[in-house]
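Reviewers of the previous submission asked for a worked example of the structure-prediction workflow described in the proposal, so we include one complete record here. The input consisted solely of the amino acid sequence. No template or homolog information was supplied to the procedure at any stage.
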Amino acid sequence: MVLRIFKIVWPVMLTYVAIGAPCGMIMGQTGMEPWMVFALSSTFVTGSGQFMICNLWLAGVPAASIVASVAAISSRFALYSASIAPHLAGASKRQTLAVAATLTEEAYGISLAKLVEGEDWGPRESFVLNVILIATWGVSCTTGAIVGAVVDVPTAIASFVCTSLFICLLFSQRLSRGNVVAAVSGAVSVAVCKFLGLTNIAVPASVVAGIAIALACDAVFDGRGARDAR
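From that input alone, the workflow returned the following structure tokens.
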């Protein structure tokens, strides 16, 4: 079973290495020891959240704002767990909890696809997949922290790895009115907050503003389309 999962997930493991190493370098620059990096990376399963924690900490952002920002972007994991739970209805509560507690974005996508397609895939396979990816991420981040202590890598370069990842994810999305409005609204909200000196709440405020404006825009246009159809 483990060998079968490795054959499925090895491309994702390679991307974890490429992204995890720069993340570990940034974590090391915050003063974390390699064992601390491994401990955090093995238990905090959102890589984007780790990038955000380190970058905001280095920027001197207060802890409360960091917590709010990371909580906002990590709330999606509640939706991931809720959407995969019906497909694990036959599993025990312990198995379901084990899968949900170790879920990563990439593991969620693979497991959900396997479960929906009706393949020979269950909670055991999902949990092993999660553990493999978490271990890969933890080792990659730790390696980056060790290398970063020896080789001086500019923080700006290492930080841009996460930014470029989100840019790729943005352009891979379906070009819809809601997506465009959310992206533009979020960018404008960050600029306005920084212009007004509200740096501490710029990130969480932009997330809320982008989603709210996009939902409102879709509601207005969808309602107008329904009226036109009548």
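The CA atoms of residues 58 and 130 lie 30 Å apart. We consider this example representative of the routine output the project will generate in years two and three.
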